[in-house]
Amino acid sequence: MEEKPEHIRVVVEYARNLWPDFIPSDVARLGECEFYLISEMNSQLIVHHPYRTLNELQSRLDLVQDDVLMAWSIINDHYLTDLPLLFAPHVIAIAAIFLALTLKQTSGGQQAAGNVAAYLTDHKQAIRDGSSIVASNDKTPEKRIATFVKWLAEGEVDLQAVADSMQEIISLYDVWDRYSEKTCKDQISHVVKARGLDK
């Protein structure tokens, strides 16, 4: 990636350190995979990232630094899935912002997620009328979520795509919670031995 390029030998060596039984030392194989990826992308090597959208929406949605950092971390994590190939970068950024605002492990974030429906119900007439319901200097979790929901309702973003990408990210975190490297290595070894691929 552009942010931190690594030489192909370093990538293969790192992979061999993690999985010495399964990764061959042939650097050419990884290079071949890169050519397949370039071919699938129709030789378009310009890839847009969700970070730009996140930075643009930070001031518009009155996000605090903690929200941006958490959304940035979620965007970093999404690269471990196939989401960059399935959804546009702005969709992933919006999903990351939503998750950052609602799934915080702080009591304020949980309370905000729990109270946002009641808050929006109380102010639904103001939202319909388009009047401002959020003061510019008020950055409580409830107000930030209300600002985000209002912005989302007024926009033309594909909400189904946002929901699907959020579900994929949540599923990734669920898999991480249940992941055991020992179990994974044992299962791979079992498959390799069962098919006679270890010879």
How would a crystallographer describe the biggest sheet? none
- Note poorly predicted spans: 106-121, 130-136
Distance between the termini: 35 Å
Binned strand content: under 5%
Alpha plus pi helix count: 11
**String of helices and strands:** HHHHHHHHHHH
Mean pLDDT: 78
Which structural class do the helices and strands define?
A: mainly alpha
Radius of gyration, rounded? Answer: 22 Å
How many E strands?
Answer: 0
Shape: elongated
What multimeric state do the chains show?
single chain
Can you lay out the helices and strands and say which pair or pack?
Elements: H1 8-18, H2 27-40, H3 51-60, H4 65-78, H5 83-86, H6 89-102, H7 107-122, H8 124-129, H9 141-154, H10 159-178, H11 181-194
Helix pairs in contact: 3-4, 3-6, 4-6, 6-10, 7-9
Describe the model.
This protein has 199 residues and is mainly alpha-helical. The radius of gyration is 22 Å and the shape is elongated. α6 packs across α10. The protein has eleven helices and no strands.
